[in-house]
Amino acid sequence: MSTKHYAVIGHPIGHTMSPFIHKRLFDLAGIDADYTKFDIAPENLAAEYDKTLKHLDGYNITIPHKQSIIPLLDGLDDKAKMYGSVNTVANLDGKATGYTTDPDGFIKAIEAAGISLDGRIMILGCGGVARTMAYEIALRGKPFEFAVRREDVGKAGLLCLDITRKLPETKVSFGLIDQIIGTVDVLINATPVGMYPNTDAQPIHNCAIGRCGAVFDAIYNPLETTLVKRAKANGSKAEGGMSMLVWQAVVAHQIWDGSEYDKKDIDKLVLDAAEQLL
């Protein structure tokens, strides 16, 4: 069997963890494949699609190409259509199909951390990452709320409206991030606050963290943000974003070749990826 060829594309792409993670997943599955990275500027995407991308077996996509790749593809799966975003492409029998594995990566990471999406669920932020998480929570029939900065109130309102238009039964609201009152059962940080190099920052005050039953932080650099550390110190379940990064890669492999993985192997890969990041 000949070697299969995969890659990740983006701009800039210098510090991506994708090659390390995907090569390990191919090794675990016993599949003969290589995986590289291509830095493709937005104005060169169409040309590189014809020259390079259509000849790969599959590839991953990061900023800024998750939407602009769509017109070049032959089709999308249902979830990619709903999100209007693609981060994984499978080239099979001359047809390029786009998928988004970020939502499933989020859910699998939450499940692997033993965090149950029940009770009062709060998402910090209302950007692209928050939107992905919000839809997955809404699809499971769970009520939730956003906590945002004052300058993002209008954006949060529009996101809530978009969600309830597509999923009318959803109960969603929003408030200010610096005015969180009461206990939160599941807190999800979808903001960049606390990301390297500003690792001392945290998105909410200590007193609010102390009222959280469980915390999931989408940030993966550092492996444990100040938010995650404080939550653990309070005795709460807390998980960082490296697990989400790895699990969305696992879902990509399930699409590409149907591979299945042992949770222990994935847990170890999360830790090894953290060491590699350092």
Helix count, DSSP H or I runs of 4 or more residues? 10
What is the approximate shape? globular
Structural class by sheet pairing and helices = alpha/beta
Task: Give the strand order of the largest sheet, numbering strands 1, 2, ... along the chain.
Answer: 2-1-3-5-6-4
Overall domain count: 2
Q: Could you give the distance between the termini?
A: 36 Å
Topology:
Blueprint: E1 4-10, H1 18-29, E2 33-39, H2 45-51, E3 58-61, E4 75-76, H3 78-83, E5 88-92, E6 95-99, H4 102-112, E7 121-124, H5 128-139, E8 144-148, H6 153-166, E9 172-176, E10 184-189, H7 206-209, E11 212-217, H8 226-233, E12 237-239, H9 242-257, H10 263-277
Parallel strand pairs: 1-2, 1-3, 4-6, 7-8, 7-10, 8-9, 10-11, 11-12
Antiparallel strand pairs: 3-5, 5-6
Q: What does this 3D model show about the protein?
A:
It contains 10 helices and 12 strands. A 6-stranded mixed sheet has the order 2-1-3-5-6-4. Strands 9-8-7-10-11-12 form a 6-stranded parallel sheet, with helices on both faces. The protein starts with a strand and ends with a helix. It has helices at residues 18-29, 45-51, 78-83, 102-112, 128-139, 153-166, 206-209, 226-233, 242-257, 263-277, and strands spanning 4-10, 33-39, 58-61, 75-76, 88-92, 95-99, 121-124, 144-148, 172-176, 184-189, 212-217, 237-239. With 278 residues, it is an alpha/beta fold. The chain has 2 domains: 4-100 and 243-277, Leucine Dehydrogenase, chain A, domain 1 (Rossmann fold, 3-Layer(aba) Sandwich), CATH 3.40.50.10860; 104-240, NAD(P)-binding Rossmann-like Domain (Rossmann fold), CATH 3.40.50.720. The longest helix has 16 residues, at 242-257. It is globular. Strand 5 (88-92) and strand 6 form a beta hairpin.
